[in-house]
Amino acid sequence: MGMKIKKILYHLIMLRDKILVPFVLLYILLAALGIFWIEPKTFESYITSIYWVLTTLATVGFGDYAPVTDAGKIYTIFLYITGIGLISLFVGRVINTVYVIDKLKVGGKMKYTGKHHIILVGWSPKTKLAVKEILKTDKKTDIVIIDNLEKAPISEERLFYVRGDATDEETLLNSNLPKAKGVIIFADQIAQDNFLTKDPLLVDGKTLLVATAITTIEEKLKIDIHVTAEVINENHIQLFKHVQVDEFIPTQEMISHAAVRSLFSHGVTHMYSELMSTQYGDSMYEIPKKKEWKTYRDAFFELLNLGATLVADRGDMHINQKLDQMIPNDAQLFVICDKETISQLTSRVEK
Fold first, then answer.
1. pLDDT tens for residues 85-122?
2. Most buried in the list 295, 303, 304, 325, measured by CB within 10 Å?
3. DSSP assignment of 132-147, as one string?
4. Which residues contact 171 (CB under 8 A, 6 or more apart)?
5. Residues 129, 156: contact at Cβ < 8 Å?
């Protein structure tokens, strides 16, 4: 018997939460209809009546409209008694809902429903720098971070947090992976701190599992998502190519190579920094191929005259050694220039 009463009370509470908003709206509309019927001369229109009911229940009381008959005044007292408590309950429910949503968002328990966003897997100092770079480079793209932290690591307007294991399909779908512009997988920071010197395979192994989970979803939904991964050991890169990882963040070996080169060619690290960051104004951009460009020489010198330097076709950075070769139809050309120049170039090519 006691259990049945508890169930009934539970269902009543749930019903109250569901009908509260429509009940408040209906109450306001009927209350406005009542005063409009009682004093049609004072309240010239139904909209005016609604306005008066809202100001009365909100205890604002501008005084521009007020009942003049005894019936209207009694009706106003009735509204005070029944309506103010109801509105207070409604406002409290709205505030509580906002609090719950904010708590869920900060705790990473809400699904991300946007699209054309960038997913960053794993929180680390590198991830933080990546967030700053994205926010600085693109003023519209949202960022979704996947990690197991108790709450969002940082607070930004266009940053969203999904808490969970990135190797789990549900977590990836909660970040709306199918609609994402791309994914960057950073090496697990905890694994780096504990196993990098003992067993570096464990660090890249977790990254490989995340990449495999993404590939599984791609194959299941028949979609293609650009994936960039941080690989600690350069020898492991071949393994990642089997799970359709498109690009790799510079490994420790690459960074060490740049450091050694700086001893023999002073200033080379400044060049790397300028290529990899937008803080100097110039950056690397992809540009579509013009129909008039038959050879790399055609493209190289025309772009140079416009203030851009053609540096690569996909991963091939030996353009200066093949200027007289024909540009293939599927070429993916990259130039170095500033934002103003790339904007002009893109518009010229589209025309």
1. 777 777 767 666 655 555 545 566 788 888 899 999 98
2. 303
3. HHHHHH-SS--EEEEE
4. 146, 162, 164, 165
5. no
Q: How big is the chain, counted in residues?
A: 351
Q: Which two tokens stand for residue 157?
A: 């307007």
Q: Please give the C-alpha separations between residue 73 and each of 30, 39, 64, 291, 337, in angstroms, as whole numbers.
A: 17, 10, 15, 80, 74
Which segments of the chain does DSSP mark as H helices, in order? 2-38, 46-57, 70-106, 125-137, 169-174, 189-195, 200-221, 237-241, 252-264, 268-276, 296-305, 339-350
> Which one is the CATH code of 281-350: 1.10.260, 3.40.50, 2.60.40, 3.30.70?
3.30.70
Q: Quick one: DSSP state of residue 295?
A: B
Residues near 126 by Cβ (< 8 Å), separated by ≥ 6?
A: 186, 230, 249
Using an 8 Å Cβ cutoff, are 285 and 337 in contact? yes
CB 227 within 8 A of CB 214: yes
pLDDT band at 179 (very low <50, low <70, confident <90, very high): very high
Mean pLDDT, the chain, as a whole number?
77
